[in-house]
Amino acid sequence: MAISFAAYAFLGYQHDAPIEATPLTLATTKLHDGDTLGFSADLTAATSTPVHVMYVVSSTTSAGRPREKTYFLLRGTAEPDRKLHLAKSHTLRSTATVKLTPGPCTIALQVNGRRLPAADFRILEA
Q: How far apart are CA 95 and CA 21, in angstroms?
């Protein structure tokens, strides 16, 4: 998926802002369809910086094709010398249009359009 850094800049979010993040921490790495994926991380910035935070869940379809789904997490401001704590509990479940396929998955934060390192988890057979 192509990210338009110009669009983020137009909205006031620098993609190359001096933002650091702790590694993404998962509550558990083995889940079944219907379980909740809990995750957290902290952001810090050298200067007061507006942030637009999304998270991206990557998996594979039953046909073996890659699938990414992006979700909104936070719009706010990262302040210098103060951690901005990010946490979420996201329910993973099959729907009428999407069937969760057992196998390896990842979750990554995306700050101002810039993807941060992902954390791995696995969806298990029912």
A: 32
